[in-house]
Specification:
alpha+beta, 2 helices, five-stranded antiparallel beta sheet, 135 residues
Length: 135
């Protein structure tokens, strides 16, 4: 497959990913309203930015369930510090979080384009499987 055709497929997949994650985001907001009482926060996407030796940046989007504890520091002005706790629920008595339909997906974006570790077909299958579970 030529490079332009692959890039178009990846952009289509990226639009699909964004649509899926935006519908999932509402469930995460509702869930975070419950767990924030204990100081926890669940993020559906972890973004890492790396700078190459040539100065260009590469962004990696990791889709999953990432737990954080929020720490508010008050030294002059309030500062929020996010403390990464891992992928597992930090306390067993917390309610189970909603499933992320894109669990395990990795998207890399740089000046050469977009690359995704799954095909559009695999992404749509993940979503279909999750929808069937929720029925």
């Amino acid at each position: 497959m030529n490079k332009k055709k692959q890039e178009l497929k990846n952009k289509t997949a990226l639009r699909t990913i964004n649509d899926i994650i935006s519908s999932y985001t509402q469930k995460i907001y509702e869930y975070n309203n419950i767990v924030r009482k204990k100081g926890y926060y669940l993020k559906p996407v972890h973004i890492v930015v790396k700078k190459r030796k040539d100065g260009t940046k590469v962004k990696y989007y990791y889709y999953g369930r990432y737990w954080y504890k929020i720490e508010i520091r008050k030294n002059g002005s309030s500062k929020i510090k996010w403390i990464y706790l891992g992928k597992e629920k930090p306390e067993k008595d917390l309610p189970d979080p909603p499933e992320n339909p894109l669990e395990g997906l990795v998207v890399r974006v740089d000046n050469e384009g977009v690359s995704i570790n799954k095909s559009l077909h695999e992404i749509l299958k993940l979503v279909k499987d999750l929808a069937e579970k929720e029925e």
